[in-house]
Amino acid sequence: MTAGQRLPEWKDYLDKLLPVGDAVMKRVPTPNDPQARQETWMTLFSALANGFLGQVYLDADYPEFVSMFNTALNLYAPNPDYMYTWTPIDGQGVYRMRGFRNTARFVEFSLLDGYYALGTNKGTFALIDVDQLTLGPDTAFDVILSKTRPAGHKGDWIELNPRASNILLRSVCYDWVHERDAVVAIERMDVPAMKPRWSAEQMAARLSSLPSWVETGLIKAYWRFEDLESRKLRNKVEVHDYVPMGGTLDQIYLEGLFDLAEDEALIIETDIPKVSRYWGFLVTDDQFGTINWMHRQSSLNGFQAKLDKDGKSAA
Fold first, then answer.
1. Is residue 213 part of a domain?
2. Count of domains forming the chain
């Protein structure tokens, strides 16, 4: 905002959001279907809430890990086995991450240049498995992230690329009943401990960026379906590289569409590697949201699935 410029009012913010709904609805396969329209508005509100957390609330100077996907923020096909949290950072800063690994299948965090969920990632600089760090008997860890190792620091340290703009943390469980997700905190060490109050101009700038956040993310999501259609992946699956968007570096992603009559079923059968840290299937809707995993069986992982006599898994 320039000096003397009028700051937006409530109506101004809402007026900027109105065209986003029209732009998104144009990408919906059945825009005249009442069910599809209301589900699209639900998705838009979810994306707006996600954007408020990511674009308005979070602060790279005073970071905290918040949930980026869950049953309410059901965007971009979240994996039910994963707890996704993230925070923006400043690649020039000094950060300390502390927490407890607990008993999750694995816990890892990525240093990215761009937000994963928007498909705007320009680079993945590091993927750190928490098991690479020094863990205490209670699974506690403590690590510094910075451009250079702090003088006199003897503990765990990770070099921070100056272009890094956010951290994506994934805590993954196979056994939802007995395994425990990681608990992780983060703080920036090279700024005053007391967070200053944002100015009116700073708040206005953050709020004004929400329409772009919502539109960018959802257009990317609907584009995924258009891409799958263009590759004729009806009742087929094919490898898709999600690493450029921020996907896990050592994970292989497959996806496809299905189109079934009432008396048909889709069976996916595969050999299971003898050594595999993780594998699973999930089903999404046409909004690129995962089918409600709290009230439906919309996924299977390597712990939940039962192998056939021939050693294969079918879903």
1. no
2. 2
Give the 3-state DSSP-derived string for 46-74, with helices as H, strands as E and coil as C: HHHHHHHHHHHHCCCCCCCCEECCCCCCC
- Asked which of 181, 208, 235 is the last residue of a domain, the reply is 208
Find tokens 């971009």 and name the residue. Answer: 76
Tens-digit pLDDT profile for residues 200-236 = 999 999 999 999 999 988 887 888 888 888 889 899 8
Which pTM was predicted?
A: 0.90
Place of tokens 């925070």: 87
Same domain, 167 and 234: no
Buried b / exposed e across 240-251, counting CB within 10 Å, b at 16+? bebbebbbbeee
pLDDT tens digits along 287-311:
889 999 999 999 999 999 988 888 7
Please write the tens of the pLDDT for every residue from 232-246: 989 989 998 877 666
Domain limit, last residue, from 208, 243, 269: 208
Do 261 and 297 lie in one domain? The reply is yes
Q: Exposed, middle or buried: residue 166 (CB in 10 Å: 0-12, 13-18, 19+)?
A: buried
pLDDT of residue 119: 63
By percentage, how much of the chain surpasses pLDDT 70?
95
Between 122 and 121, the more confident residue is 122
Check residue 3 and give its pLDDT: 59
pLDDT of residue 283: 95
Mark whether 201 and 245 lie in a shared domain.
no
